[in-house]
Amino acid sequence: MRRVGVYVGAVVAAAALVSGCAGSSEGAPASAGSSAPAGSAPAEAKGGEDLAARDVELGKAGFQDHDVGGPGAYVTPYSITNRGDGTASYLVGLEYLDGDGDLLGSTGVMADKLGPGKTSKGDTAPVAAEIQNGEIADIRSVRVSTVERTPE
Predict the structure, then answer these.
(1) pTM
(2) How far apart are CA 32 and CA 41, in angstroms?
(3) pLDDT below 70 — which residues of the chain?
(4) What per-residue confidence (pLDDT) applies to 95?
(5) Strand intervals (E) in the chain
(6) How far apart are CA 76 and CA 74, in angstroms?
(7) Beta strands 103-114; 62-66: pairing state
(8) Which of 122, 120, 111, 118 lies closest to 150 in space, CA to CA?
(9) Region of residue 70 (phi > 0: left; psi between -120 and 50: alpha; otherwise: beta)
(10) Residue 4: CB partners within 8 Å, gap ≥ 6?
(11) pLDDT digit string (tens) for 38-76?
């Protein structure tokens, strides 16, 4: 149980750090036909709609320079769209994997008080402290691990 608390605390702390560097709300409604990109694992939805994971999409990730991650960071574009009926906040956990699919580390992103039909877009890159089981250079893929949707 303590591990879960430490993990959640780490995700929340990382999300707070990341949310300060990226993310913007767009006023345009999301298209109804959007879905998670191929190769992403299903996320566990908590605290809200059972289908909260459908509200999160990851773009094409890869190595590039990033304001927070620095030169040669593994940058992951994301979008969070509130497809629910009311305002909600989101906490999304991301896991970084090596070429064998082994977990290297994790981070999180947030969208606060997102109105119905609104989208928050941004990008994130892990910092060295978030990669405990290897190096940032070892990252080969990223997946959504959890999605928590909290109605406001």
Answers:
(1) 0.70
(2) 20
(3) 1-51
(4) 98
(5) 24-26, 44-46, 56-58, 62-66, 70-81, 88-97, 103-114, 119-124, 141-151
(6) 7
(7) unpaired
(8) 111
(9) left
(10) none
(11) 333 344 455 444 568 899 999 999 999 999 889 999 999
